[in-house]
Amino acid sequence: MTLKPILLYTGLLAACVVSAQGPVINHFATYAGEQSNLMEKAYERKDLVVYHRLLDSFTHKYHHLTIADQKNYRGYLANDYYNLSCTYALLNNKPKALEYLDSSIKNGYYNYNHMMEDRDLAELRQDAAFKQLVEPTRAIGDYLYILRRAGAYNTADNRVFPAFTYQDASNPNLVALRKGFNLDSIAGGGDEVSKILNLLHWIHNLIPHDGNHNNPEVMNAMNMIAVCKKESRGLNCRGLATVLNECYLALGIPSRFVTCMPKDSLKIDFDCHVINAVYASSLKKWIWIDPTNDAYVMNENGELLSIEEVRERIINNKPLILNPDANWNHKSTTTKTYYLFNYMAKNLYILNCVVNSEYDTETRQQGKSLTYIHLLPVEYFKQQPDKTSVTNAQTGTTFVNYNTNNPVAFWAAPPGK
């Protein structure tokens, strides 16, 4: 049995956000959660009568939603069918267990690894029909398998894209940010790496992660920190990485916020994760910094690793060490197995960075243009076009996107470093 997140909000250029608005949908979200809790209890009792009654009630209301809203809430249905399959499997009714497992998969349950490890399905896994049902989901839901099949990058890719830039610390907005929050004191008087980590810890402690809401419309550090304080709220991963990025720039430390995305050829995974790549001149490399989880990653010698290095080590099963105090909102420990080999293995397939790393980068404005570079593995199914441009009709902001397979160009050191 498993209960998985249903609605995921991460804010990738407004395209990674699944948003359920209005009283009807909010009411259904509450109802769906309550029904799932009741079905979980029925599963625990192996009470098929109650489980089917609850499921019938849920499916009746579900099918009265619009097609778009059904898509948003389909995860509940997939999970409910999955748990029903588990119940029948525990009662040794293989035909029914397979029937509802099939229904679960058809409604979007693709957690291949869980199906292959779930003790509830232990007997079912011996059946050839189980293998036939589950094997196709491996290319969708086995994230390590997908990442390892991604193939190599291509350092010979000579497609041209704009050079990355990093705003100078003398910018008046960055100067105000530095002074307003006394960032020199927060960073401390230690070496460069200690300053980078001190700022990471500060932002993690200052602003909680809130993945269920959009960020403030004005997306700069001064405003977002003020809004969070005034409204007693947090930011999603993109907001946290944006605030931290500007703090690094304010101290003259080159930094990017990096959107880490899945392959998702079926367009069903709206989740992504945004972290920071911070250039440590003393190490001559970009290092992995994640304010959502207060996390950084090391090799077996305790040396800090870059996003590129972590990705390569995940693919090749090399040792990785996650800092022991990594956590989510000081409520749960962030574990290496889930964080790196499940969640980030999923989200390290495509990497995306805005070209100009600066104050107030992503606040939408009429006539503003934002340029992004996507680093794609050679295996990715959609390499073309090399460049796209689209203007948002509501905000008047133009988004320009370039594709590349060249990690050397994508991870070029900042000028003069």
Give the helix/strand layout:
Blueprint lengths: L22 H23 L2 H15 L4 H24 L3 H13 L5 H6 L10 H7 L3 H4 L1 H6 L16 E2 L5 H9 L2 H5 L4 H15 L14 H11 L5 H14 L4 E7 L11 E8 L4 E5 L7 E2 L8 H9 L5 E2 L4 E2 L3 E2 L2 H12 L2 E5 L1 E2 L11 E7 L11 E5 L6 E7 L2 H4 L7
Helix pairs in contact: 1-2, 1-3, 2-3, 3-4, 4-6, 9-13, 11-13, 12-13
Question: Your description of this structure?
Answer:
This protein has 417 residues and is of the alpha+beta class. The protein is 42% helix and 13% strand. The protein folds into two domains: 23-141, Serine Threonine Protein Phosphatase 5, Tetratricopeptide repeat (Alpha Horseshoe), CATH 1.25.40; 169-349, C8orf32 fold, CATH 3.10.620. It has helices spanning 23-45, 48-62, 67-90, 94-106, 112-117, 128-134, 138-141, 143-148, 172-180, 183-187, 192-206, 221-231, 237-250, 307-315, 336-347, 407-410; strands at residues 165-166, 255-261, 273-280, 285-289, 297-298, 321-322, 327-328, 332-333, 350-354, 356-357, 369-375, 387-391, 398-404. The protein has a seven-stranded mixed beta sheet. A two-stranded parallel ribbon has the order 1-10. The protein is globular.
Q: Could you write a compact summary of the structure shown?
A:
It is built from 16 helices and 13 strands.
Low-confidence stretches: 2-24
Following the backbone from N to C, one meets helices and strands in this order, namely HHHHHHHHEHHHHHEEEEHEEEHEEEEEH
Q: Which strands sit side by side, in order, in the main sheet?
A: 4-3-2-9-11-13-12
User: How many strands, what sense, and barrel or not for the largest sheet?
Assistant: 7 strands, mixed
Structural class computed from helices and strand pairing: alpha+beta
